[in-house]
Specification:
The chain is mostly helical and 136 residues long. The protein has one domain: Four Helix Bundle (Hemerythrin (Met), subunit A). 81% of the residues lie in helices and 0% in strands.
């Protein structure tokens, strides 16, 4: 069984964190706080849990579905999730500590904004194109 409501609830949580983090990283002082670092860790954990839940439920069912088009769509989404996982892993440890250079933090901010856009786009596409496939 695909826990669609749980996946959608995770989307809302991820979007909430993205909004909060977008505000915090825009402020040079706020981006250097422990609160921001903890929220980044929370985001990484939540996205990892979400992707794992999709793997264990959604893709598991769709990859063996009798409709080859559904299988193809699932493979495409699954493949794109690997790139997202790599990008999250590349984020590594939160570098904007009070001791970090401004250039180091700014580089991370640029990377984070790109990651946030990628996450928002993925959520939008999942909600519009993937999840409706399992409710039909």
């Amino acid at each position: 069984m695909i826990p669609l409501q749980r996946l959608q609830a995770q989307h809302r949580e991820i979007l909430d964190l993205l909004h909060s983090l977008s505000v915090l990283i825009a402020d040079p002082e706020a981006r250097r706080t422990g609160v921001t670092a903890r929220l980044f860790a929370e985001l990484a954990q939540l996205v990892s849990e979400h992707l794992a839940l999709e793997d264990d439920t959604l893709y598991r069912e769709l990859l063996v579905h009798p409709d080859p088009q559904l299988q193809r769509t699932a493979r495409d989404f699954l493949a794109s999730s690997h790139g997202l996982r790599k990008r999250l892993a590349a984020s590594g440890t939160y570098p904007c500590t009070p001791e970090a250079s401004a250039a180091e933090c700014e580089k991370f901010v640029v990377h984070s904004r790109e990651l946030f856009d990628q996450l928002r786009n993925r959520i939008e596409i999942e909600e519009e194109r993937l999840y409706p496939l399992v409710t039909d």
